[in-house]
Amino acid sequence: MSQHEQNRSAEPAQPDEEKGSTLLKLARAEIAQQFGQARDLSADAPWLLEHGACFVTLTQHGELRGCIGTLEAHRPLGLDVRENAVAAAFHDPRFMPLSRVEFDEIRVEVSLLSPTEVLVVASEEHALASLRPGVDGVVFEYRHYRSTFLPQVWEQLPEPAEFLAHLKRKAGLPVNFWAEGVRLSRYTVRKWKEEAPLHEHS
To answer: Taking all residues of the chain, what is their mean pLDDT, rounded to a whole number?
Structure first.
């Protein structure tokens, strides 16, 4: 091992806290630019150029205000964060586009996804027994129906049966639906969230 390699191995590749801070700033800066606010942010770290998949979630006063993401890594992580931040703020079909006033009230959260793992299940009962509450993000697929919940959703839906039922509803199917062609995959996330705006502390 060369001296250079020894030096590299003696240091963490990228501390999680530092990586999270960079991703959060990158997401907020991209939204700010849409409002004409220039934010000087250096985003040329080599790891941002590696392909990655993320979700960007916006909350306002503790309520969901937008969430858009990518399930499979197909572009540089830095670009994925920027594109998903703008999409969560302005193109989530469940919400009106974010306003300039709301921009100061939102909290940004970035979830970095692991590769998905297909769950081989013989029945819905088997599927429910295979899920890991609080750990798994889950992708539900049946023909052209598709939906996903991040692991954070377990906080609102802690029971596997309830979690899966809402996942099917999100896909546009009845909550009691099951068929042979159902495909489930799971993934885990590393997530980072901004501190609450100052006025929320008061």
So the answer is: 89
Q: For residues 63-81, b (16+ Cβ closer than 10 Å) or e, as one string?
A: eebbbbbbbebeeebbbbb
CA triplet 191, 117, 68: central angle to 5 degrees?
45
The per-residue pLDDT for 4 is: 41
pLDDT digits (tens, 9 = 90+) for 26-51: 999 999 999 998 766 666 789 999 99
The Cα 198–Cα 201 span in angstroms is 5
3-state secondary structure of 40: coil
Contact status, residue 86 vs residue 31, Cβ threshold 8 Å: yes
Q: pLDDT band for position 5 (50/70/90)?
A: very low
Return the exposure string of 6-19: e unless at least 16 CB atoms fall within 10 Å of the residue's CB, then b: eeeeeeeeeeeeeb
Q: Are 71 and 116 in contact (CB under 8 A)?
A: yes
Tokens representing residue 62 in the block: 């503790």
Count of beta carbons in the 10 Å neighbourhood of residue 148: 21
Residues contacting 26, CB < 8 A, separation 6+: 41, 43, 48, 78, 81, 82, 85
CA distances from 183 to 3, 127, 147, 149, 186 (A): 48, 10, 11, 14, 10
